[in-house]
Amino acid sequence: MLDRNIIITLGGTLMAFKTRKTEEFFYSSPQEMYQDNKLKKIMGPLDYQATMLEEYNKNMDKKTVALELPTGSGKTLVGLLIGEYRRRKNKEKILFLCPTNQLVNQVVEQSNMKYGLKAVSFCGKQKDYLPTDKNRFLMADAIGVTTYSSFFARHSFFDDVDVIIMDDVHSCEDYIISNWTVQIDSKSTTFSEVLELVKPYISETDYQYLLEDEYSSDVAAWCNMLPMPLVLDRLNEFQEILRQGMEKGNSNYYAYQNISENLKECNIYFANRKILIRPWVAPTMFFDAFVNAKQRILMSATLGKSGELERITGIEKIFKLPIVNDWDKKGLGRKFFTFPDLSLGADEHENVIKQLQNLCKKSVFLVPDIKSVDKIKKIFEENLESTKIFEAEDIEKSKNLFVDIPEATVILANRFDGMDFSDDESRLLFILNLPKTTNLQEKFLITRMGASKLYAERIRTRIIQAVGRCSRNASDYSIVCVMGDTIQNDLTKKEKIKLFAPELRAEIQFGLDNSLDYSTVNDVLEQAKDFLNRTAEWQKAEEYIRSEER
Predict the structure, then answer these.
(1) Model pTM?
(2) I need a labelling partner for 333 at 20 to 30 A (CA). Which of 136, 200, 271, 308 fits?
(3) Can you give the three-state secondary structure of 163-201, one letter per residue?
(4) CA distance 478 to 530
(5) Would you say 393 and 415 are in contact if contact means Cβ atoms under 8 Å apart?
């Protein structure tokens, strides 16, 4: 806090010396500190957030502590309050990690504008970080917010951090291990060189699938792994191919630098026209900035029962604080599920999209890949000319461009969580063939090694996050239109539905029961209208869903 200005004159120029009064910090908890915050626009913390903060306070000395905070439970506020409390009390450098740049910007905006907590963002290249932001972080005058990949990069700016707060840990495996992962596609000459080297060690079928140009479901589903020990006798040759093939300055170049000395500890994964090289688990415990931090705080939608967090983070011992106040049994807003494929078939996808978009005007569209993005864009361009189309990069800095337009859709490829569209920002969520796996190792373990049970919790969490993108608070509501047969299988089988929380389970079952009776797209539309307008007909449905929430 500035105390006074001392004015002196030198050569006719007025200069002000600034003096700073030492801040008095007398709060006994993050909750008490936040209650006294005059800049906040969001009240809180809510009861379950306060209870989790109390549990954290009791374990503030643990080296690694994981907080289980399911989707919609306000992880961001909890994490920021812990960070702000430690920053002000202990003058510690706090770093808040997010999966993507968009989420970095979202967290910083919420922190400063909603919660009245000091935060600065670090996105892009380190040389472009603003000097004032760097100094505020280094002097513990503000919480730093950046991405996982930026933190775990070689020669990172964040090499001396006191407390690391890791947001959405359950979905950040790819972002953490990206700095130890080399990905080679068929456009690179390195692809053919690696392929020729490994050809003697793979089957003819695998070789053909690797090179296949024409799309087929078999080719798309195929993947395999080559254990590195099989090619140890040619390891030096392999090293030289990779060293020569990595263009200096790109992500593969730095990733190869990180794994080159331990290449024999990695595995080689194959998919159609793709080669991926990575270790089983991210070697984070050999990364000094991560190891030397006073504390690592993991915020996750699930703690898992099969070593999920340990595999993702590379940390062997994690002290875990489970869900409080039965939050796992509660839902977030109301979702009306519709599964038009169950009665109308895939031929009506275009018509369903058109009719629901015209009704709601704003939508979020989750798809599995860039190829699907192009397909959906074409449907909008040909049928919904007045609808502005956004992709993830268009709203990386802020989603206001999308929010401020009366008719719009944002199409997100392979994104399960992070981007939230509450209330009137969007009442319509489309989900088309969202994949259950996000990386090639995961796909291999599930499809070739029968490890689906190992990843069942992770897959279920992704589905919960996906269906909740447009219902973000207790009074929020949205239509969830599920098309395609990927996650739909997990939402239609009784043995899988019963694993969801009671409220979500009742919503899914209600949607399934009603979707079986559609004869035309107009049936979907009429139910959607009743839901959005909260008609008497919907109120009957609401009472029924509540009676089934058990």
Answers:
(1) 0.84
(2) 308
(3) EEEECCHHHCHHHHHHHHCEEEECCCHHHHHHHHHHHHH
(4) 12
(5) no
Residue ranges of the chain whose pLDDT lies below 50? 1-4, 7-8
pLDDT tens-digit profile of 184-230? 998 889 999 999 999 999 999 999 999 998 878 788 889 999 989 99
> Is the distance from CB of 371 to CB of 433 less than 8 angstroms?
no
**pLDDT tens per residue across span 490-542:** 787 888 888 888 888 999 999 999 999 999 999 999 999 999 999 999 999 99
- CA dist 515 and 272 (Å) reads 35
d(CA 484, CA 354): 17
Q: Which residue type occupies 450?
A: G
What's the confidence (pLDDT) of residue 417? 63
408 vs 418: CA distance, rounded Å: 19
- Contacting residues for 287 by C-beta, under 8 A, at least 6 apart: 152
In angstroms, rounded to a whole number, what is the distance separating the alpha carbons of residues 270 and 440?
A: 8
Contacts of 541 (CB under 8 A, 6+ apart): 510, 530, 531
Number of Cβ within a 10 Å radius of residue 91? 13
- Positive or negative, the CA dihedral 480, 486, 489, 491 is negative
